[in-house]
Design goal:
Blueprint lengths: L4 H5 L4 H18 L1 H8 L3 H9 L18 H24 L32 E2 L2 E2 L11 H20 L1
Amino acid sequence: MARKYSERIESMDADSREEFDTRIREYHGAQGWQKTLAKFKPSPIQLRAILAGKDATKAKAKAKKKPKAKPEVAAPKAAKKKAKKAAKKKTAKKKRGRPKTTASAAPKPAKKKPGRPKGSGKKKAGRKNGVAKADLIIEGKIDATQFMQMILDHSERMLKMAQA
């Protein structure tokens, strides 16, 4: 497994380390930061320092600057917010809704459960899911004209059997 950047530069002198950093900068220019991180294994903070030409061992994360609060402006804004909230509460109390009629309200019908309708609940003898053992079940796709021809042939045979 490749060693990390910090482990590699421990045993290097200043000249060889500077040469190594220039190789990293060239590779970064050609390949981008993701491949550079994968190949040379510096931390992103160290890579930023190398690209800037600084010492990567002393690199630190960027400090976030805190915005300065303006005490003169902050106080009136808070007072305005409180005034708006108080005004909203007053208007909310004045509003009246429609009176609820509990006695005359019709009961709501129960929600139907999703799925197939159960029917009468009685099972016919020898049937499973509406299919008997003697039923012919054909799955697949056929042409409509072929299907109609099959139906007509079957009905002709049934008619002949009935006449005989």
